[in-house]
Amino acid sequence: MSLSELKTSFVNKRIQQLEVSDTGLVTASDNAIFNIPKDTQLAAVHPFLEATQYLLPTIAKNITFPCVNMEIDSVKKIVDIEILRQDEQLYILLFDFTEHYEASHPLVQEKNENSIAKSKLDFEKRLLIAKSEFKNSFLSNLNHEIRNPLNNMLGFMDLLAETKLNYDQYETIKIIRKTGTHIKMLLEDILDISKIERGVIDVKNVNFYLTSIISSLQQHFSLKYNNSPVELEVDIIGKVPKTFIGDPVRLNQILFNLLENAFRNTTEGAVTLRISSEDTSEKIALVHFEVSDTGMGIPEEALDQVFDSYYQLKLEKEKPIGEGLGLKIVKDLVELLQGSITVTNAVGKGAIFTCSLPFEKRKAKREKKTIQKGSGIYRSKRILIVEDRADNQMLFMKTFLNNDKGYVIEIASN
Asked: What does the DSSP assignment read for 338-368?
C-alpha cells in the first residue's frame, strides 16, 4: 500500500461526509463512522443534529461544533462537527476525535479542578480579609461607643463614693465599681486584639522601672484577693536590672493577665511570679517571667488551645480554667514585643506560664535633673475643658471642684 493510499484509508475512517438540504434532509452519506441512511431527516438521526437543522438556511460559509458526544445505532463517538456551504450545497463533516478527547479529558478535568480550587481559595481569602476588616471595624466602633459612657459612669461612681454613704450603700458602690472596671479591662483587651490584627497598635520605647511595675501588681492583687487563701509570691532570681527601655504598659498588661488567670484558677496555695534575666548582647537583656499556680493544671490535649480567642477550658465540677480573652491578648502582645511564651503543667499541681521578653538595658545616669516644684498643669488654677458631651462636662467640673484647690473652670463644647 502506497503512502497516499494509507493516508486516504486513514482519513476515510476518521471523517464522515454528509450532503444535506436546507430543510435537514440527508441526500448522501459515506457512512465512514455512523450508519445514516439516505433520505433521512437530521431530526431522526440524533438530537444534536436536530438542533442544528434550524441553522442550515442561515449558513453562508461554515460553522464548527467541537467535542460532541454522539451515539447512533450503539456506536459511540466523540466528534467535531463542521457544517459548510460550497457551490450552493450544504455539507456536514463529522471528525472522529474519540481517542484524542478520551486521552485529554483527565488532563482537562484536572486543569479545570485546579482552576476551580484556585478560584475558591482566592475567594475564601478575600472573604476572610473582608470578614476580618468588618470585625475589627465593628469592635473598634463598639468599643468606643461603650467605653465613653462606661468611663463616665465609673467617674460618677468615684464621686459618689466620696459622699456620705451608709455601710450598705458604700459596699454596693464598691461592687458596681469593681464590675465596671472589669468590663472596662475586657473592652481594652478587645480593642488591643483588634489593633494587633490590623497592625496599628503602637509599641513605646521609653525608660521604665521594672520594680515599679512589680510593686504595683503586688499591691493590686493583694487588695483584690485580700480575702482569698491564695497568696502572691514574687521571687527575683539572681541580679536583674531595675531599669529598662521598652513598653512598660504592654509589659504590665501581659503580667496582669497572666496573674489574673492564675488567681482565677487557684483555690488554695500560692501564685508565684519568678523573674530572672540574661544578657544576650551588650545592650539587650532577655527577661524571663514565670507565673505558676497551685490550681488544677491543664490537660495535655488542651495546652495548644489555651491561647486561642475566647477559649475556656472546662473541667468536671470545676469553674472554667483561663480567660481565653486574657491569654489571647497575652500571646499577641508577647509576639508584638518579639518575645516568646510557653505553658507547661502537671495536672493537679498547677500550670506554669513562661514568658521571655527582650528589653534594652538602661545605663544609670549620675546627673539628676530637678523639676521645679509646682510646674506643669497644676501650677495654674485656670483650666479649660473642651468636651461636647454634657454629662462628661459635668463629670470634669465636679471632679475639679470637689478637690477644693481653688480651680477656675471654663467649659467649651468644641
From this structure: T-EEEEEEETTTEEEEEEEEEEEE-PPPS--
**Rounded (10°) CA dihedral 31, 37, 39, 45:** -90
Question: Which cell is 154 given?
Answer: 465609673
Is 260 within 8 Å of 327 (Cβ atoms)? no
The DSSP output letter for 66 is E
Residues 6+ apart with CB under 8 A from 115: none
Secondary structure of residue 23 in the 3-state scheme = coil
The rounded distance, in Å, linking the Cα atoms of 162 and 403 is 11
SS3 78: strand
Helix segments in 2-52, DSSP class H: 3-14, 42-45, 47-52
Grid cell, residue 279, equals 544578657
Q: Which of 293, 6, 296, 324 is nearest to 189 (CA)?
A: 324
Per DSSP, 313 falls in state B
Any alpha helices (H) in 162-244, and if so which ranges? 167-198, 210-224
pLDDT single digits (tens) 55-81: 898 888 889 999 899 999 999 999 999
| Contact status, residue 40 vs residue 26, Cβ threshold 8 Å | yes
Percentage above 70 pLDDT, the chain = 81
In sequence order, what are the residues at sequence separation of 6 or more whose Cβ sits closer than 8 angstroms to the Cβ of residue 336?
A: 196, 201, 203, 250
Q: Which three cell numbers stand for residue 392?
A: 462628661
Three-class SS of residue 114? Answer: helix
The Cα 140–Cα 265 span in angstroms is: 30
**Distances in Å between the alpha carbon of 159 and those of 152, 165, 298, 396, 399?**
11, 12, 43, 11, 7
Can you read off the three cell numbers belonging to residue 387? Answer: 468636651
Average pLDDT over residues 3-24: 80
| Residue bearing cell 489574673 | 260
What pTM, to 2 d.p., does this model score? 0.51
The residue with greater pLDDT, 5 or 92, is 92
Output phi, psi for 354, to 5 deg. -115, 120
d(CA 320, CA 311): 10
Reduced to 3 states, what is the DSSP secondary structure of residue 16?
A: strand
Per-residue cell: 409: 473652670
Please give the pLDDT value at position 288: 95
Backbone dihedral angles phi then psi of residue 232, each to the nearest 5 degrees: -100, 125
